[in-house]
Write a structure and sequence with these properties.
Length: 146
């Protein structure tokens, strides 16, 4: 792994630690709100999507029969990963907040700290391997198994 790969891999976690550092700014300051909102919207999900990246890239998007856009697959895959990152981030935030509320330990700072730690852990995890498609598995047959 090159240093550039490591930096890209840890970028969501760095965003979380930056959002935690932004809590030292005065309440209501725009940089504080921007850092926290950007991390909560994309950070945890981006780390999770990176883990699943090879599995997502194994099956490319299929474009319409008549092609108007030559880069349909690439744009579709980027949009898919972006939407997954946002939705996974929102889901993680809701899940962490619910657990903290149930434990009667909820606060915005604790939620942000927990999400930052989970994002850092996800950034350190290895990527999943892509399973081969049934078309590329030797000996795979179409239809039901005997």
């Amino acid at each position: 792994m090159t240093p550039q790969d490591l930096v890209i891999r840890m970028l969501p976690a760095f965003g979380g630690w930056l959002a935690l550092a932004a809590l030292a700014l005065p309440d209501g300051s725009p940089p504080r709100g921007a850092a926290v909102a950007l991390f909560l919207a994309v950070g945890p999900g981006a780390a999770l999507v990176r883990i699943c990246g090879p599995a997502l890239r194994a099956r490319r998007a299929e474009g319409p029969v008549e092609r108007h856009d030559a880069d349909f697959e690439r744009h579709s895959d980027l949009l898919e990963r972006l939407m997954l990152a946002v939705l996974l981030s929102v889901s993680a935030a809701v899940l962490v907040a619910t657990v903290l509320i149930a434990a009667r330990a909820f606060s915005g700072d604790r939620t942000l700290l927990t999400l930052t730690m989970l994002t850092t852990l996800a950034a350190l995890c290895p990527s999943l391997r892509a399973s081969p498609t049934p078309d590329t598995v030797p000996g795979a047959r179409k239809g039901s198994a005997p």
